[in-house]
Write a structure and sequence with these properties.
By secondary structure, this protein is an alpha+beta fold. The protein is elongated, with a radius of gyration of 12 Å.
Length: 65
């Protein structure tokens, strides 16, 4: 959770397939450092390639996803 109240959680996506992109833990840290809301995080996440299928949950102070 960051200072703005944005929280993230991560679970494995179920398929051990690797592809081009970033490790999701780095992406989640980036989101926590640069985003304040779920909407901001989703918009950024949509444009970042992740190398392994993952499930990400986002919540903020204003709403649940």
């Amino acid at each position: 959770m960051n200072d703005a109240g944005l929280a993230v959680s991560l679970t494995f996506g179920g398929r051990p397939v690797h592809g081009p992109g970033f490790a999701v833990v780095i992406v989640l840290r980036y989101l926590l450092e640069t985003c304040d809301t779920v909407d901001e995080a989703v918009a950024r996440l949509a444009g970042i390639p992740v190398n392994i299928p993952q499930n990400v949950t986002l919540v903020d102070r204003e709403r649940a996803p």
